[in-house]
Amino acid sequence: MEKEKTVISLSKARGNHYITRMDYLDRITINPAQCGGRPCIRGMRIRVKDVLDMLAARVPEEEILEDFPYLEAADIDACLQFAAAQSDHTILAGTVIAA
After folding, report:
1. Is residue 44 part of a domain?
2. Residue 26 sits in which domain range?
3. Distance CA 70, CA 76 (A)
4. Contact between 31 and 38 (Cβ < 8 Å)
5. What region, left, alpha or beta, does residue 21 occupy, with left being phi > 0 and alpha being psi -120 to 50 degrees?
6. Are 31 and 44 in contact (CB under 8 A)?
7. Strand, coil or helix: what is 18?
8. What is the number of structural domains in the chain?
9. I want to staple 81 with a disulfide (CB 3.0 to 4.6 A). Which of 23, 24, 52, 96 is the partner?
10. pLDDT by residue (tens digit) across 25-64?
């Protein structure tokens, strides 16, 4: 099956960097024997949540990459893509049956 080819333009701060919509699947790993099965980056023991927490605290991407030299800018993008995909769950409204 061929990977989806939809292209998303990222912020100008990242230059002319383009990624395919599903690239995060190549970077986010889930291993039940590592970090309690939480999503990690490329099999390393850095959790997606850790990166998202740093971004939420307004730590600049450049500072994250300096503090964690084994991370790449695409890893941070993958964390954001993963979080966006995880938050896109449909909630079905059911009928309430009175008891």
Report:
1. yes
2. 7-86
3. 12
4. no
5. alpha
6. no
7. strand
8. 1
9. 24
10. 789 999 999 999 999 999 999 999 999 999 999 999 999 9
